[in-house]
Amino acid sequence: MDAALELVWSQSYGAVTIDDICKKADVKKGSFYYFFDSKEQLAVSALDRLWNDDWKPKMDEIFSASVEPLERLRTYLAGIYRRASETKARVGRMLGCPVASVGSEVGTQECNICTKTREIINRKRRYVESAVREAIADGSLEPGDPVKRTVVLTSFIEGMMLQARTMNDPEILKDLHEMGLEILRVKSPPEVTLAAVPASNS
Amino acid sequence: MDAALELVWSQSYGAVTIDDICKKADVKKGSFYYFFDSKEQLAVSALDRLWNDDWKPKMDEIFSASVEPLERLRTYLAGIYRRASETKARVGRMLGCPVASVGSEVGTQECNICTKTREIINRKRRYVESAVREAIADGSLEPGDPVKRTVVLTSFIEGMMLQARTMNDPEILKDLHEMGLEILRVKSPPEVTLAAVPASNS
DNA sequence: CTTGATTTAGACTAAATAGTCAACTATCGG
DNA sequence: CCGATAGTTGACTATTTAGTCTAAATCAAG
Asked: What are the pLDDT digits (tens) for B132-183?
């Protein structure tokens, strides 16, 4: 599953063959088919694992209720550019969001992968939405519909990631944090925002 | 090229084979290789044609200098949901932006397709950017950096399209127009905006 | 019509790919 | 140590796929 994720993330779902995955994982085809029926089933399992073992814990930490809602969003936004840069430094490529990439690629085919990517995207969104709702309620964001505000923010983020991947340039994400806060309509002026930034590395 | 575009758009670049394209175009392999060296070269030609024969004329019309800058942006935004719905009605699927989909899929491979998708995305952006710049200059948008404003808007749009494709639901784009104007920071209140809409079908 | 150039057809090869299978090996509870 | 279960292996088949090649067909101009 790790090998499959890496390959699919750095290339695309369609470009990766079962032979590639077996080679990368140093496993023979027979072993592969002992555990999985097909590439599709493997992809679903791998995405499921990605969510449960990697993303969910991280999201639970970032969006912990012990942190102020606006601060959660700040931390989330700041992490995007940081992780993209790290990945680019590690693999030499701007990779973007694997779930969005795969989701877009197979989204027209109504396979099991679609169900899984949709599920993960919706789960992720829920974290953002509840933080946005709370932040609007506690007055740290301008009043408005939290659902729409979340749609705008998450679409913006996905669009930025998509573009960074297409252009192979993580630097496109440099101002994502700042732009994201602007989209969110933070009440306090940017000067105050800037002064508050050091607190985000807690 | 038409057959290739249709297939790649409705599925993905990796999922479409030369045989598929030949079958769809009702052409034999020998003919294909008489005109093209490979699937990649065909894709580049097809994307180039898509831009020159389809997108560029449309963009030139929408972003005509004879129209007020804000009005250009309005028309552009309104067209996205409309066309997505039409396509969904025609092919039964929410397809999104073919250039963005292909660009994301092959973006990590540094092939000729990448160059072409990047070129098209940049060209498209220039239309939006100049309209945003003019709209800020003439006071119909709040003051700010037109480049950043454009990045935010286009990323938002691409993110929405990506999501609509992943979810196979064009209705996600229903409020794109309104949300886009909010992101653009239109100066006049939404009531006035609403009253001005009928003028957009000119 | 004739000729030469362009285009098409379809059979062909070689490689890649998905998927199968029976034999083999490791592990683990008793 | 035994037997059983779980896991591994590599060779195997069938299919798909990219790409080639030659002969036939079409076309355009004199």
From this structure: 999 999 999 999 999 999 999 999 999 999 999 999 999 999 999 999 999 9
Phi, psi values for residue B186, rounded to 5°: -65, 140
**Alpha-helix runs per DSSP H in chain B:** 2-10, 18-25, 29-35, 39-49, 56-62, 69-91, 98-106, 112-137, 146-167, 176-184, 190-196
Which residues in A lie closer than 8 A to residue B13 (C-beta atoms)?
A: 12, 14
The pTM assigned to this predicted structure is 0.90
CA distance B34 to B39: 13
Q: Indicate yes or no: CB of A13 within 8 angstroms of CB of B14.
A: yes
Q: What is the pLDDT of residues B15-74, one digit of tens each?
A: 999 999 999 999 999 999 999 999 999 999 999 999 999 999 999 999 999 999 999 999
CB B13 within 8 Å of CB B46? no
CB contacts < 8 Å between A and B, how many? 149
Contact B170, B84 (CB under 8 A): yes
Q: Are B121 and B52 in contact (CB under 8 A)?
A: no
Distances (CA, A) of A132 to A65, A71, A155, A185, B10: 13, 11, 14, 10, 35
Three-class SS state of A185: coil
Nearest chain B residue (CA) to A114: B166
**Helix, coil or strand: residue B141:** strand
Higher-confidence residue of B177 and A193: namely B177
Residue owning tokens 């499959």: A4
Neighbours of A142 (CB within 10 A): 12
